[in-house]
Design goal:
By secondary structure, this protein is mainly alpha-helical. The protein folds into 2 domains: about 60 residues, no CATH class; about 40 residues, no CATH class.
Length: about 110
């Protein structure tokens, strides 16, 4: 891993680094999720089923959104990042939290 001296970086460089890190993390999570999905699909196929047969479809054929953000102290409160922001999220942002701080880590 490359040693990076954050103290010597400008604000623009730090923001660019943060953007690259978030992109790398998102890509990693997508790859790992796809690997897991492929493994589950292969197992289901080997037993004569499809994922849809085992799990069923969401109402109306819609895909269920996976939670992306979690309340800082109450893990039961989550948000997928789609639709209106829940009250707990708005409150956390008003209290100084950054949306990236609330991301669910894989």
């Amino acid at each position: 891993m490359t040693d990076i001296n954050l103290e010597e970086m400008s604000l623009d460089e730090l923001k660019e680094l943060r953007k690259e890190v978030v992109t790398a993390i998102d890509g990693y999570e997508i790859r790992k999720r796809n690997e897991a999905l492929a493994a589950v699909e292969a197992t289901a196929r080997s037993m004569g089923y499809s994922i849809t047969q085992l799990l069923g479809e969401a109402a109306g054929g819609k895909q269920i959104s996976v939670p992306k953000y979690r309340h800082p102290s109450d893990e039961t409160l989550t948000w997928s990042g789609r639709g209106r922001q829940p009250a707990w999220l708005k409150q956390a942002l008003e209290e100084g939290h950054v949306l990236d701080d609330l991301l669910i880590q894989a």
